[in-house]
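Title: Prediction job returns without error message
Component: structure pipeline
Severity: low
Priority: P3
Assignee: unassigned

Description:
Job completed but the reporter wants confirmation the result is attached to the right record. Sequence as submitted:
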Amino acid sequence: MSIFVIGRLLMLGFVLHAGAVMAMVPQEACQAADDLAGTATPIPKVAAALQPGAVLDVLAVGSATMFGPEASLGPGTITSQSVGDGGKLSSQVKLFTGPASERAFPLQMAKELRGAIPGLDVKMTVRGGRNLLATDMLDLLRSELAAHHYDLVLWQTGTVEAVRNVPPGEFGQTLSEGAEAVSEAGANLVLIDPQFSRFLQTSSNVEPYEQALQQVSAMPGVVLFHRYDLMHAWANDGQIDLERTPRSDRQKVIDTLHACLGKHLARLIVDSAHL
């Protein structure tokens, strides 16, 4: 059998196994248009590591939600209960030192990738905390990139900036510096935008920060994961609506949300790696 034929068979097997990404979470809980999660963009560093039997080393930097439902403020979203007087987040910044929960969506993403690609080992490092600005996360990002080589960086940010009304231009500049640092370190970047909540939608103008994220995602090797749009669609459809979920059912719904986000994030990464 020729090397060409063998290569074609391996790629076919890779694509078929990638379909498992969509099967690991109940489909009815995660319905969304194919392009709602984001547009696949070439991520060559990840593509080289996203192979059967290989190792994908991932760094995730962000807020409390990156560490799991139990680490999140309120019901895992930004609500009136999670901010102080005057509709502003408290100034207290808390860095998390413990490991992220296996139920957190970055770990769920890793689980989905392992299930999609036979023998793939996904190593996940999560750094961040509560009430962090993008500038705080940039310092964490640079520190981690200097200490270890990663293939992929997940960077979730923008919520605190929107609530505090940070100048969008400053936010965009911070994102650009972070994207350049990731590129110089030989990795690819997936930006993750704020999570949807009605409180955030009515109390803050998220649009300028979404635009900044979109602009930076045009840089080579950068993908934007639209968490906000996914959560908005699920809430409108009544699939996953944390703010209108009875307290007794909230834990189950939060777990479902993280699993669904992990599934769609993994799918976007697989699609981007195939370009």
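Comment from assignee: result matches the submitted record. The longest helix spans residues 250-273.
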